[in-house]
Structures are given as structure tokens and as C-alpha cells.
Amino acid sequence: MPDDEVEPTTSGSGFSRRNLLVGASAASVLAAAGWPGAAQAAPRDDSLKITIMGTSDLHSNAVNWDYYKDATYSDRDQNAIGLARVSSVVKQIREKRGRDHTLLFDAGDTIQGSPLGFYYALVDPVTESGATHPIAAQMNAIGYDAVALGNHEFNYGLEFLDYWISQMDADVLAANAVHAGTKVPAFTPYTIKTMKVKGRPPVRVGVLGLTNPGVVIWDKANVSGKIEVLDLVEAAARWVPVMRREGADVVVVSAHSGESGTSSYGSDLPVENAAKLVAEQVPGIDAILFGHAHVDVPERLVTNTVTGKTVVMSEPKNWGQRLSVFDLDLEFSRGKWSVTKGSACTINTNTVVDDPELVAVVRAQHEAVVKYVNTPVAVSTQALSAAEACWKDTAILDYVNEVQTATVAAAVAGTPEAALPIVSIAAPFNRGATFPAGEVTIKDVAGLYIYDNTLMASVLTGAQIKEYLEYSAKYFKQVAPDAPVDPAAWTNAPWPTPQSPTIPDYNYDQFSGVDYGVDISQPVGSRIVGLSFNGAAVAADQKFLVAVNNYRQSGGGGFPHIATAPVVYNAQVAIREAIVSYASAQGTIDPADFHVENWRLVRNGTPVV
């Protein structure tokens, strides 16, 4: 297995005071940010403190920029995003701790999730141009030591993933992603880094990478028959002893997996959010950097049930908004180091400014994307908004269904399936999405359709569509018929099973092409009323051609029937690009041409809005 050395750095380290906040020392900034390790007592000769830093769910955010708004990123909590911000904090910690006392890891979902990632995967692919991927370039410039694969690393296919890995200086890890039908890792399982601290015996830090089992559902088209993803606990139990035998004094797990012990895809696959289970059940782990849930978990102390020892865990908030910092106290005894105590915190990257060196690394690529997203595609006759799309049939979501329906209809023309009525499914991905009156640009489309899904079409029966809609209607809380009208408060109901705290907006699928009501005064499973097509009740055995995205068709969200339905169309057309192409061809976006209010919220038959 790889055994790389992290050499002490005293000069030529690639950073300087000019990258810190003006007038503030690294120690003072970190102390203000709440880092408990900002001031430390001098260690004994047989003791040592090392610092492990970690990011997760960067989602191709390189700089503090919102491509959808064409402006500096901002939110109500004054967060900042991007690897350029992360770099400034990392440099401060390295300055304070000493480069030889620190390592930097990532827990996955790095290359997909922003227009920057989309552009260099699909519009101007680095695999064709030969350019360095912007995230690889930045990670190399910062000096990451190891990166675990997240599920979104598989979105653009294995060839693209392999190309990105080849550009990375850091080890890219995924112990539980194996060649299909075997237990042979398809990627490097772990690496051991040797930290050479002046005047001390070397410290060997092993890091194990684990990815998410949901890959085989969410990216079935890319990995089926090629990659399988094993249980995280099983993989950790296999590899941690190997790392210890190879001399790892410290073992860190970098896992793209939440901590809750639950899954969004049911029980057919190993647990999705298994980070805490790994800490509890696998002996020999000192710390776990985890991600996937997009939440800020500064520190979680978990007792291993086998050894009784404490495992320190931390999850940094997504997009580079936080950096996890683990401080591990080590003691040297009988010729080896061991961890005696661990703590963790997260540092808010809004406490620093963008590292200008990291901005420079991607400036040309960033500017190319800004130019691209500001390209006009059509003119809208009026302003369209998704603000009410979670509880009301809106024109802007109907436009997604219009494009999907037209694309599928053109694709099946001349086939037996052309005789089937076409319905389409869309979900409200972004309540802030708008098409302005007048010029609509690619960034407006990207703000509406924020995921890199592709379009598919399957065949469902009327009975199956009704069951699908009932499942979707779980999104709403049950509301009394005479309760005050407050639809915004009725969304995001708790999951009927404890998969996550609430049902997200992207799991509320809406159909076009059929007419129906959602009676939220009724219990889950009995809410869909008046399901009809062309004025007649939908028959249980009536067949429909259903336009659907690949995430949903692969089983994402656990909706019934769709994952096993016959697939009629799968040309790998990106839905966002289909919307852009359709809008460009039409030239005008006029709701009068496509907006039909075919579904509505009701209570005891009375429409809510």
C-alpha cells in the first residue's frame, strides 16, 4: 500500500502572511473562530500533538461564488464557500501547528454539484481538452494528503473518475468499492502517511477511505456490472487490522457516510449513514472524518463497544463552509506512538478571505463558466417563480415537464410506445429558482434544475402511478379541513420511517399529463383523489409512458415501481441541457403554451390554493 512521507516545511511552503486576515495573526484568527487548539502548552519529549484537518461535500465549489445568482455567495448565516476559503484556514493552522504536525483529508463529493463541475465534465470536458480539473488543481495546490470518494464522484462515469484521479497528487481512496462479483478493491483502500516531526520518532498515520453503498442505485447506469459497494462496517473491519499490522500508529477513517445509522433507500443495500456504526463496532480506529449529510458536526465522541475506547468524529459543513480540525494527543511508549486523547471542532471559513493563490489557480476556468452561465437561451413572456412550487402547480415546473415530454415523444416516434400517453415527473429542487420576464440565461435554467440528472422513460400502469403519487404525497403533513391556510408550514413532513428528519423538497414528485388532487386532510396512503386522463378516470391496467430522471428511475428516494419498470428510453441526455436546447430552439417561453393546472392540494374536496 502507498506509504508517503509528509516532510517538515520551514521555508518555500507556498503561503505567507498576506493570505491571512489583514492585521490578524493566525493564532488570533483561529482563537476567534473557536478553535480550542489555538494556544497549547509545550509537549513532553514522549508526547506529541498532531492535527488532522478535513473537508467534505465540496461539490466543485472552488471560490466564494454563486453561479446561479452571478454574485458572491451569501446566505442568511453569512457563510462562505469554496476551496479558496478552506485554503486560508488550512494555511493558518499549518502556520500555528507547523506543517510537519498536520495532515489534510477529504471525505468525498468533490467534483460534482456546481456549474463549474458540470461545465468541465459535460460542456468542455477535461477528458477531451486535456486540461487539469479545477478541483484537482486546487487540491494539489493546497496539498491534500488523501481524499475519499463520495457517491457523486461516480456521476460522470468511471472513465471521467479515473481521469480525475490520475490528476490528483493526493491518494484517492475507497476500500469498499470493489470490482463487481469480487471483494477486490477497485480503488486504493488506504494509505499510510509518515509524519516526520523534528526531534521525534516518525508518526505513521493511516487513513482508510469509505464510500456510500447508494452508488449502485444512484449511478446504476455507470457502475452496474463493474462496481459494487460493500458495507462500511464490513470493509473497515477488514482493512483496519491490515493498517495496524503495516505499522499505523494512528488510524483515521474518511467516510462519505452520515452518522445516523439509517438509509434513504431501504434495507436492500448496506446502511447509507453508517459512520457512527463504524466507530462503535470496529476496533482500532482513533478518528472519523465523515460527510454526505451536509450538516455541521463539530465533535462527536463515540465509545467503541469492543475496546471501550473513545473515537472522535467530526463532519464539516458542505461546500467548504467549515473545516473539521482534529487534535490528537499521542504518547510514545515501547517503540510506538498511540493516541491518548482526541478532540475535534469545526472552523467557519467566513472568518477568513479567499486565498488569492487558490483563486489564481482556477481564475481562467471560473471566468469561462461565468461567461457560459450568462449565455441567453430564450425570452420569457413573464416572470416565473418556483417559490410556491412545493404546494402549487406552477408554470416553471411545468416547463421542466414540457421539455421532458417533448424529448421523450420525439425519441419514441415510430415505435410501438408512441401510442402510449406520455406523463412526466418533476420535483421542486430549488424554491429560489426564477425565470425573469425577458432574457432567460443558462444560469436561470441551472438554478431551476440544479442536479446533473439524465432523462429516461419507463412504462407504468394506472395503478402503479396512483401508488407512486401516494408515496410522493407523504411529503405533506396531515392537516385538518378547517385549519388556517398555511401551505408553507405543511410541507417537509417527517419520514414515516426514520430515514432522515423530514422529507426533502426533491422527494415531492409532481406529474403532468394526468389530473389529480392531493387531499392532505387524509392519512398517508389515502390522499390521491380524482386521478384521471383526458377527463376519464385512469384505469388500473391503463399503460403510460413516464418521463423520469435517472436518479428516480434507479431507485433514488425509494418510490414504488419505477426502478423495476420497463425502460423504453435512455439516451443519456442531461435534463438541464435538454431544457437549454428546447428553450433555444423555441426562442420564447410562454406559460400559455404549456402551463396546465392538472394537480392541486385539497382538503375534503375543497382546493387549498
UniProtKB/TrEMBL annotation:
InterPro entries in UniProt: 5'-Nucleotdase_C (IPR008334), 5'-Nucleotdase_C_sf (IPR036907), 5'-Nucleotdase_CS (IPR006146), 5_nucleotidase/apyrase (IPR006179), Calcineurin-like_PHP (IPR004843), CpdB_N (IPR041827), Metallo-depent_PP-like (IPR029052), TAT_signal (IPR006311)
Catalytic activity annotation: a nucleoside 2',3'-cyclic phosphate + H2O = a nucleoside 3'-phosphate + H(+); a ribonucleoside 3'-phosphate + H2O = a ribonucleoside + phosphate
Locations listed in the record: Cell envelope
A Pfam family: Metallophos
Main location class: other
Domain Calcineurin-like phosphoesterase, first and last residues per copy: 51-295
Keywords of the record: Hydrolase, Metal-binding, Multifunctional enzyme, Nucleotide-binding, Signal
Residue ranges of every copy of the 5'-Nucleotidase C-terminal domain listed in the record: 378-563
GO molecular function terms attached to this record: 2',3'-cyclic-nucleotide 2'-phosphodiesterase activity; 3'-nucleotidase activity; metal ion binding; nucleotide binding
EC assignment: 3.1.3.6, 3.1.4.16
GO cellular component: outer membrane-bounded periplasmic space
Any GO BP: nucleotide catabolic process
Required cofactor(s): a divalent metal cation
Family: Belongs to the 5'-nucleotidase family.
Name this protein carries in UniProt: 2',3'-cyclic-nucleotide 2'-phosphodiesterase / 3'-nucleotidase
Species for this entry: Agromyces flavus
